[in-house]
Design a protein that fits this description.
alpha/beta, about 15% strand, globular, 10 helices, disordered C terminus, TIM Barrel, about 40% helix, two-stranded antiparallel sheet
Length: about 290
């Protein structure tokens, strides 16, 4: 699988990053099978969070033997200094490591939470302190709604973060306002050598009320291998980004195979993507700016 410089961190990360939320509610035996799949595809970057159920514990069990094989990232969702620092310490314990490669402020998009996190006594102070103490090597910020690009630009103007994470897929990027904000963010990140991670690359649409939710993701993902390949290749071809994998172990091998087969210029045309949208009934997850989950 292609490796790219992860911003200015000095690490070359696989274009597909393992989204640890897929391990939120699985037994260790199933988690270990996922590890084998990651190693087979050459995935060398893991993204997890304490909000993802038992995922940190499942990944932590890998670290005694495989810590050097992965760039390890987690997140904090607390916004105050004390609780945030405690959360960092807990994650280090759960992940069985003495230091994190990347610590991210989790899902920061509302004005109230931004003010709390960046004010005196806020979570940013705990993150910076953890970095200065050698508990963390790099810092980032994530967001999961239409407000993410503008929020990240504001955060980058406040602190020199090493990475950002936000949604990107073909239907979403047909929203002119979101595309404008997204591309503005990409431009700033290129200038500052900030790594960009894009989630929801294989999102199909929200689950319908009348249908059975057959996967653990809060949205319905694409399932056919060829559809996933087109969606993944389109995102990778549009921008120098990384794709955290969807939070569902069933389609993980298909997402990794799609990322593994990507080559520069192999992305589908807009016409092909429009056909996919029509045939798969793809829809934006935030058509009216409504907030979503992970």
């Amino acid at each position: 699988m292609e490796k790219r410089p992860f911003g200015a961190t000095g690490h070359d990360s696989s274009v597909a990053i393992f989204g640890g939320v897929a391990l939120a509610d699985v037994r260790q035996e199933e988690a270990n099978e996922v590890l084998d799949t990651l190693l087979d595809y050459g995935v060398n970057h893991i993204d997890v969070a304490p909000a993802y159920g038992d995922a940190e514990l499942r990944i932590g069990s890998w670290m005694d033997e495989y810590r050097e094989d992965f760039f390890l990232a987690t997140k904090i969702h607390e916004r105050e200094y004390g609780p945030a620092l405690k959360q960092i310490e807990n994650s280090l314990s759960r992940l069985r490591t003495e230091e994190l490669d990347l610590l991210q402020m989790h899902s920061l998009t509302t004005e109230e939470e931004w003010e709390r996190a960046f004010s005196s006594g806020g979570a940013l102070e705990a993150m910076v302190e953890a970095k200065e103490a050698g508990m963390v090597n790099h810092l980032g910020v994530t967001g999961h709604t239409l407000a993410a690009p503008s929020s990240h630009l504001r955060s980058l103007n406040e602190y020199d973060f090493d990475s950002v994470l936000l949604p990107c897929n073909y239907p979403l990027m047909q929203n002119p306002e979101y595309a404008k904000d997204f591309n503005e963010l990409i431009g700033v990140c290129k200038e500052r050598n900030v790594a960009v991670q894009t989630i929801k690359s294989v999102a199909q649409r929200l689950w319908k009320d009348e249908e059975e939710q057959t996967m653990d993701t809060w949205y319905k993902p694409l399932e056919a291998a060829e559809d996933i390949k087109k969606a993944v290749h389109w995102v990778l071809n549009e921008n120098p980004v990384f794709i955290p994998t969807a939070g569902e172990t069933e389609i993980l091998p298909r997402v990794l195979a799609a990322a593994d087969s990507y080559r520069p210029g192999s992305g589908p045309s807009d016409e092909e993507m429009q056909t996919l949208v029509e045939e798969a009934n793809m829809e934006p997850l935030w058509p009216g700016g409504l907030p979503g989950g992970e």
